Amino acid sequence: MTMLPDLTKTTLALLDATDPLASKRDAFFLPDNTLYLDGNSLGAMPRVAALRAHQVLNEQWSRDLIKSWNSHQWIDLPHKVGEKIAPLLGAAPGQVICCDSTSVNLFKILSCAMLMQPGRTKILSQAGNFPTDLYMVQGLASLLGEQYCQLVLVDDSPDNHALEQAITTEIAVLLLTQVDFRSGRLLDIQRLTQRAHEQGVLVIWDLAHSAGALPIELDACHVDFAVGCGYKYLNGGPGAPAFLYAATRHHDRLTQPLTGWMGHNAPFSFATDYQKAPGIAQFLTGTPAIIAMSVLDAALTVFDNIDMQQVRYKSLALSHCFHHLVTMQPCLADLQLITPLQPSARGSQLAYQHPHAYALCQALIQRGVIADFRAPNILRLGFTPLYLRYVDIGTAVTILANIVSSQEYLKPEYAVQQKVT
Ligand SMILES: Cc1ncc(COP(=O)(O)O)c(C=O)c1O
Ligand SMILES: Nc1c(O)cccc1C(=O)C[C@H](N)C(=O)O
């Protein structure tokens, strides 16, 4: 990407005027006087989500009660939503299902993958991976016993190639998050999956910070399994159900551990013995959360006719503009970027280290710029191309510069720790 020489307000407004995604912003409810740079944690609310919630409550559940499972096809929703997510993941039909949380889906997949690798006991992951991924492995290890399952962690700094070197025939499963939740570093799915397969290792990708943010090609990269969140770039709302991808070639061999009735071959036969459903349905466990899943279903319509290459282009351009403007402000020199700048190595966020990152974040929020903080010292900013404008980037950096140059962030109230950061 070429460096824009002069990012004046006029230039940014011009970028908005020629932005092919600009009209998508109207699809979202965005509060006044708020610049939302936290869609990587919780996506903004698509207007259609509110309409669907109203419809499910007031036209379906209230009026049609239990008949709705058939008349409003509630029973098919996990498949329907899975198929809506599939194109965003580069997945052919029949391989993605919407259910449970990312953590729970990880447990199911980790367990399946370990059972497919008799004689191998190690699950390899990044030392800095999102904790729930590591905790789920630790939970599985305590269930199976250390002799059957161990978590191996590597520090995967960009230049040390430790991750690639650690993928050997000793490893059963490689569990990686495509975009690091702290640094925003992007891993190469194609290269790492290929390396893993050469060593007989199965691969699970956590797409929490990439699904809906950048083009993904799970089938083309021969990925085995993947999971991800419905509430970040897919805008499904707080605690939205997650998704799970399992490549068709594995379906017949899988034995998932949470054998609930919804994953049974014939749930309404109420048989005593479990018999898994064929295909991706085997990953269902209990009754789907219909209200939340309906909201996610509606939210996904925002992606209708969207070109993910355009989303990626704008995401990189927004973050590029942000960082460029930061570097133009001498007062922001203490912000140290920890996100790799090359487009091929970053996702849709920027992360800066600063000794007062927490207070800076609180001061930004107070001024209507919603960012977040990740301990111990990271200010994290997410760039969501469907509802952010280029002019917003200029405004956000100006506000940040004001907060720093005036030392406003040193006010005692900004040091008060919130429960959720
Ligand atoms: C990489 C990653 N995986 C998983 C999760 C969350 O999983 P869950 O939806 O189960 O809380 C997050 C964020 O919360 C995440 O950043
Ligand atoms: N899932 C979250 C929640 O329930 C509350 C607050 C934040 C979150 C997050 O998604 C955290 C997120 N995965 C992260 O990247 O830090």
UniProtKB/TrEMBL annotation:
<feature type="binding site">
    <location>
        <position position="102"/>
    </location>
    <ligand>
        <name>pyridoxal 5'-phosphate</name>
    </ligand>
</feature>
<comment type="function">
    <text>Catalyzes the cleavage of L-kynurenine (L-Kyn) and L-3-hydroxykynurenine (L-3OHKyn) into anthranilic acid (AA) and 3-hydroxyanthranilic acid (3-OHAA), respectively.</text>
</comment>
<feature type="binding site">
    <location>
        <position position="103"/>
    </location>
    <ligand>
        <name>pyridoxal 5'-phosphate</name>
    </ligand>
</feature>
<dbReference type="InterPro" id="IPR015424">
    <property type="entry name" value="PyrdxlP-dep_Trfase"/>
</dbReference>
<dbReference type="InterPro" id="IPR010111">
    <property type="entry name" value="Kynureninase"/>
</dbReference>
<dbReference type="InterPro" id="IPR015421">
    <property type="entry name" value="PyrdxlP-dep_Trfase_major"/>
</dbReference>
<feature type="modified residue" description="N6-(pyridoxal phosphate)lysine">
    <location>
        <position position="232"/>
    </location>
</feature>
<dbReference type="Pfam" id="PF22580">
    <property type="entry name" value="KYNU_C"/>
</dbReference>
<feature type="binding site">
    <location>
        <position position="231"/>
    </location>
    <ligand>
        <name>pyridoxal 5'-phosphate</name>
    </ligand>
</feature>
<comment type="pathway">
    <text>Cofactor biosynthesis; NAD(+) biosynthesis; quinolinate from L-kynurenine: step 2/3.</text>
</comment>
<feature type="binding site">
    <location>
        <position position="209"/>
    </location>
    <ligand>
        <name>pyridoxal 5'-phosphate</name>
    </ligand>
</feature>
<feature type="binding site">
    <location>
        <position position="261"/>
    </location>
    <ligand>
        <name>pyridoxal 5'-phosphate</name>
    </ligand>
</feature>
<feature type="binding site">
    <location>
        <begin position="130"/>
        <end position="133"/>
    </location>
    <ligand>
        <name>pyridoxal 5'-phosphate</name>
    </ligand>
</feature>
<keyword id="KW-0662">Pyridine nucleotide biosynthesis</keyword>
<dbReference type="InterPro" id="IPR015422">
    <property type="entry name" value="PyrdxlP-dep_Trfase_small"/>
</dbReference>
<comment type="similarity">
    <text>Belongs to the kynureninase family.</text>
</comment>
<protein>
    <recommendedName>
        <fullName>Kynureninase</fullName>
        <ecNumber>3.7.1.3</ecNumber>
    </recommendedName>
</protein>
<feature type="binding site">
    <location>
        <position position="287"/>
    </location>
    <ligand>
        <name>pyridoxal 5'-phosphate</name>
    </ligand>
</feature>
<feature type="binding site">
    <location>
        <position position="206"/>
    </location>
    <ligand>
        <name>pyridoxal 5'-phosphate</name>
    </ligand>
</feature>
<feature type="binding site">
    <location>
        <position position="177"/>
    </location>
    <ligand>
        <name>pyridoxal 5'-phosphate</name>
    </ligand>
</feature>
<keyword id="KW-0663">Pyridoxal phosphate</keyword>
<comment type="pathway">
    <text>Amino-acid degradation; L-kynurenine degradation; L-alanine and anthranilate from L-kynurenine: step 1/1.</text>
</comment>
<comment type="subunit">
    <text>Homodimer.</text>
</comment>
<keyword id="KW-0378">Hydrolase</keyword>
